[in-house]
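The protein record filed here:
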Amino acid sequence: SVLASTVRICAGGKLSGYKGKMPGVLEEIFMALSAKKPLYLLGAFGGVVGAVCDVILNEVVSDSLTEEWQIRHNSGYSDVQEIARLNAHECNYESNVELLRGISIPDLASLAGLDEDDYKRLMCSPFVDECVHLILKGLKKISNA
């Protein structure tokens, strides 16, 4: 459970073919944000995390973060959403995007033990060694706090 973890490191993530009402990595991101846990988003590796970073950094909303796209790319997803709506548990993609738009990079950086420039670099770097370095830098800082 996200509440039992200290930090979340997210890269990639399926945009389709997942089980449930939303991509699992997207749900993990929202749970970490809600719990105010340090969250390391490696956006350059694409997938859900790449789409999330595009919203946060560039105000660009990928089609993959819309219900219409999800319905077109996930067999039976429309039925899942209808059943979930009956119980008020559907995935509201418009609301999700608004939550993402409200994320503050300074807040993400602070929780992760990084300055804003380092956090932005983490979100954009395609280099695994650089990402690992930045994550370890942040972890060291928050573990000493």
Observations:
- Helices lie at 24-34, 47-58, 67-73, 77-86, 93-101, 105-112, 116-124, 128-144.
